[in-house]
Amino acid sequence: MLPEIDLPPQTHIIVAVSDDLPSAAFRGKRAMRSLSRLLGALTLLAFAFSLVGCEITADDIERWKGTVKGPRKIVAVLLAPKYSAELRSKAALALVEMASRPEPEPFEGLAQLQRAMPLIEEAKRQEIIHMMIPRLVALMRGEGSPVRSNPDGTPAGPTELQTRAKDAAFTLLSHAAQPDRQQLTQAILQWIAEDFNGRSLAGNYSAEQVVQAIGQPAAAFLVNALNARMPPEALEKVAQLIGQLGDAESKRAGAARLVAIELEMESPAYGQWLRQKVVEQAEAQRTTLTPEQTNRVVEHNRDQLIRNGALPAMKHLASERAVVDRLLAIGLSAQAPAERRAAALIAAKDRLTRADAAALTPLALNGQTPVDVRDEVFDRIAEIRDPSVLPQFHPLLVGEDIRVRWRVAELMLQVGGAAQIPELFTRLPSREAQYPPGELSGIASRIGTLSPLPTEVMRGHLRSPQWFIRIIAIRFFERKGSAADVPSLEQLTADTAPCVGEGWEAGSTVGRIATGAIETLRGGGQQARPNAPSPAPAPPTAPPAPAPTPAPTPAPR
Question: For the chain, how far is it from start to end, CA to CA, in angstroms?
Answer without folding.
Answer: 32
